[in-house]
Amino acid sequence: MSYHPVPHDSPCPPPGQPPSPYPPQPDFPPPQPPVGQPFPPPPPPGYQGYFNEVYPPPPPAPQPSQDDHQNDTGCCSCLKGWYAIPLDCLFKVIGANNFVFRIWNECTRHLFILVCLMEIIFCPLFSILKLLISEIGDYSFMIHVRFFFFFWESLKPN
């Protein structure tokens, strides 16, 4: 005796599972890709991500213009920090290597005193020159920062 008195077209569920409450769908399961074909197809060029957001193009890079030459005051860029060249030479003569002071290692306190004097004498001079000549640049600020950094490092115990 059959438990299904009326014949039907849907396949029976496997033993131990209840029957599906949904009627059979004609296009399920989804079609499988042919053998050897990629699935899904690769994204088109310009694909921006999962949600395919459209972002505006980046702004164009700035182009050099003739205004730079028209606003030039005649001061060569290599001369804007002219006072740093003899100062760098002086540091190399007294034993420092390109602004890296070996204060407590080689020259001990003599170099430290010399650097203190140079900070007192030269940095106000550089600040005045920077006020008088606007094309000097930020070398005086750099020298202040380097001096105070090495002062602080030299005061730490070894």
TrEMBL record:
Keywords per UniProt: Membrane, Transmembrane, Transmembrane helix
TM region positions: 111-133
What is this protein's name? Cysteine-rich transmembrane CYSTM domain-containing protein
Specify where the region named Disordered lies, as residue ranges: 1-70
Q: Where is the composition biased (Pro residues)?
A: 8-46
**Organism, scientific name:** Citrus clementina
